[in-house]
Amino acid sequence: MIKRILWFVIGTAVGVYAVTRLKKRAQVLAPESLQASADKMASAIRHFGDEVRAGMAERETELRDALGIDTAAAHQTQREDDR
Fold this sequence. Notes:
This is F0F1-type ATP synthase membrane subunit a. This protein is an all-alpha fold. It contains three helices and no strands.
C-alpha cells in the first residue's frame, strides 16, 4: 500500500511539473509574446544600424580631415570662383 501511495505522489508531482512547463511554453509561443519579441528584435536591429551609420560618418570625417580632402575641395571651389 505504501508503494502505491509513493507512486501516486511521484506521478502527481511529475504531472504538475509537466503541466506547469507546458503552460509556460504556451505563453512564450503565444502570438502576443512572439510579436513583442519581434518588436524588440526589430528595435535592436534599427539601433544597431543607426550606431553603425553614426560610426561610419564619424570615421569618414576623421579620414577626410587626415587626408585633407575637405580642404582640397574648398581650395578647388575657391579656384573655380576666382576664374
